[in-house]
Every structure is written in C-alpha cells, then in structure tokens.
C-alpha cells in the first residue's frame, strides 16, 4: 500500500462543502482498494487573502510541489470582487496553474444517460455526447504582456491585455490533444479566430504542422464563433477540441449545458511531469454557498481523474465513477439537476448526495 500525498485546496464559497464529500469518498474508495491518502490542507483564493494577505501563499505552492497531486475545489466570491486585479482570489488560481506548469487542461463533457432529459437541449441532441475539451491553461490572454490600465492619446482611460502564444506553447498543447484524440474517436477540432487574429493564425499553422505526426487523427478547424454555435446545433460532431485559454474557458461552461449542469463537469490540469491540479470546471457558486445546495459530483469526478492520471490507481477512479453513476440511478438530484416532475427522482442537499454516494463505494 502506498500513501498518496494530496494537497487539498478547499478554497471559497461551496468549495469546502464539496471538498468534504470528495475527500471522504476518496478515502473510502481508496481503503477498499488498499490505497491510503495523506491530505495536506492549504489556503488559496479568498480564504488565503483573509488569513495571509496573499491569494497564493508561498507555503501552499511549496506543499503543492511536494505532493503527488493537487485537489482544488473553487475560489472567489463577492467579498473580494472589488480588490485590484493583482490581489484577487482568481490570481491565486492562475498562479498555482503557472507555478506547476499545468498547461494542459482536460475538460471532459459527457452526458450521463440518466440526465439526457435535464439538459435544456433536446434529448436526441445530447444523448451519447462525449467531448473532451483540451484547453491551453498557462498562456494566451490570461498571461500575455503588456497588460494593465493606461491613457490613450485622447486622454481617455483604457484597459488592455495581450493574447499571445509562442510556437512551442501551441505545439505542446497540440500534442496532448492529438495523443488524446488517438486514444478516443480520432477526430480533433482546433478552435481559434484565425480570420481576424495573428495569434490564431500561428496557432492554426502549428496545429497543422503537428498534425503531420498524427495521420490517423482527422483534423478540422473552426472559428470560435461558429464552434460556440455548432456545440449546441450538433454536439455529437465533436470528439476532441483543442483551443486557447479564453476560448476553452467559455466553451467548457457552454458544454456543461449539454449535460444539464456545471456541477457535473470535472477537469485535470496537467504538465506531464510533476503534480497535476484536479478541479471542477465550475466556480465557488457564491449564490448558493453555505446552503448545502451544491452539487458535489464534479468535485468527486475530479478526484477520480486524479486517481487515473496522476496517482495511477484506476480501480479507485472506477469506484468513484461507479458510485456517481449509482446515485444518479437512484434518482438523487441536487437543485442544479433536479427537474420537477421527473419520475423516480428526488431533490437532495449536497450532504445527502454525499452520504448516499458513500454507501455505493
Ligand atoms: P460559478 O461557476 O461559481 O457559478 C455559476 C452558476 O452555476 C451559479 O448559479 C452557481 O450556483 C451554479 N453552480 C456552479 N457550480 C455548481 C455546483 N457544483 N452545484 C450547483 N450549482 C453550481 O461561476 P460565477 O458565478 O461566474 O463565479 C463565482 C466565483 O467563482 C467568481 O469569483 C469566479 O471568479 C469564481 N470562479 C472560480 C473558478 C475556479 O475556482 N476554478 C471557476 C469559475 C469561477
Ligand atoms: C475556470 C475559471 C477560471 C478561469 C477563473 C476563475 C480564473 O473560470 O477555471 O474555468 O478562467 O480559468
Ligand atoms: Mn471558467
């Protein structure tokens, strides 16, 4: 039995509520497979600002680097929304991603068969959808320089950011996406805005070049505006999508509506060497924080991705995923996925969903 060292970052809002469910589930599923976890709790986001003045204390990054993997819930909230951008909780999240060089953000959007009717889209459109969004996570407009505020020649205030990618940055994310596509449906769609942006022209060129090493993968290209539309018109067209930081952010929230809720989507942010960060796609949901109303399943599925990718304990991942499937089969629905009048379902709190999940591990 190996003791897996996990850096646990509950963060803000619903973060601590869903993290409690995920760590308990992980420990139980691990014990069944003879695996043990050592949790090191650290501060990030608003909680870290309140305690230390910094959104990512040095100690948190150091602990993360020494761990086998990082499990992160969510950061942010109204309380910190008026801070200058360099001091906001979100900067802590960006800093830990950059600090661990977690450049590849894998965001699967899979529609559980039990929920094909919870999507705002028609069942026949979403049933069987299985998309993997590969989002570049430590570059692009989130990190590009120059950025800031200034004054233009007319003396008016301006705000500006820079969308920039280097060839090696595009190449490494493209390789991750081609490798993933090779193991799945062998179709990769690169999403950009090369009809307008130079950064996207470079992106497309490099993706085409990398694609020469993957003749078995069918490569297509789509502009972001069209992709946003096609994702709703015909989501089953997509297998793997590769895209830059901001487009990937937006498309993954959009893709969550295929499954019916943001509360269902997990993600893995990995570098290929060193610990990855396993985090739901959603945020800290301040509108429902403290009400025991959050859906913990995206967090639990993120823990499952951690077991599969970083910790190489697929049997623990299988157990967590099977338990998620079982609670959905049993008709349990948190508010975000509850649809009034659906036979055999009932509205539950986060803690009840958690307790029921434990029974199925
Ligand atoms: P959000 O994802 O927190 O919430 C959007 C909507 O989805 C809300 O109505 C929320 O109640 C609902 N929702 C999200 N997760 C849910 C869950 N697990 N169960 C049930 N409902 C859920 O996005 P937002 O409101 O735009 O942002 C809130 C804060 O979270 C901001 O400070 C933002 O910067 C931050 N944020 C953090 C992360 C992260 O930590 N990875 C991601 C996105 C947003
Ligand atoms: C996400 C979030 C973050 C992002 C924010 C909170 C910095 O929206 O993880 O999707 O934009 O990457
Ligand atoms: Mn987002």
From TrEMBL:
Enzyme class: oxidoreductase
Pathway: Amino-acid biosynthesis; L-leucine biosynthesis; L-leucine from 3-methyl-2-oxobutanoate: step 3/4
Cofactor: binding comment: Binds 1 Mg(2+) or Mn(2+) ion per subunit.
Sections of the chain in a coiled coil: none
Stretches assigned to the Isopropylmalate dehydrogenase-like domain: 5-357
Record EC number: 1.1.1.85
Keywords carried by this UniProt record: Amino-acid biosynthesis, Branched-chain amino acid biosynthesis, Cytoplasm, Leucine biosynthesis, Magnesium, Metal-binding, NAD, Oxidoreductase
GO BP term, pick one: L-leucine biosynthetic process
Membrane-spanning intervals of the chain: none
A matching Pfam family: Iso_dh
Catalytic activity: (2R,3S)-3-isopropylmalate + NAD(+) = 4-methyl-2-oxopentanoate + CO2 + NADH
Subcellular localization: Cytoplasm
Top-level lineage group: Eukaryota
GO cellular component terms, A-Z: cytosol
Molecular functions per Gene Ontology: 3-isopropylmalate dehydrogenase activity; magnesium ion binding; NAD binding
Cofactors: Mg(2+); Mn(2+)
Assembly information from the UniProt record: Homodimer.
Family: Belongs to the isocitrate and isopropylmalate dehydrogenases family. LeuB type 1 subfamily.
Function text: Catalyzes the oxidation of 3-carboxy-2-hydroxy-4-methylpentanoate (3-isopropylmalate) to 3-carboxy-4-methyl-2-oxopentanoate. The product decarboxylates to 4-methyl-2 oxopentanoate.
Classification via PANTHER family: 3-ISOPROPYLMALATE DEHYDROGENASE (PTHR42979:SF1)
Protein name: 3-isopropylmalate dehydrogenase
Species assigned in the record: Pleodorina starrii
Record lineage: Eukaryota, Viridiplantae, Chlorophyta, core chlorophytes, Chlorophyceae
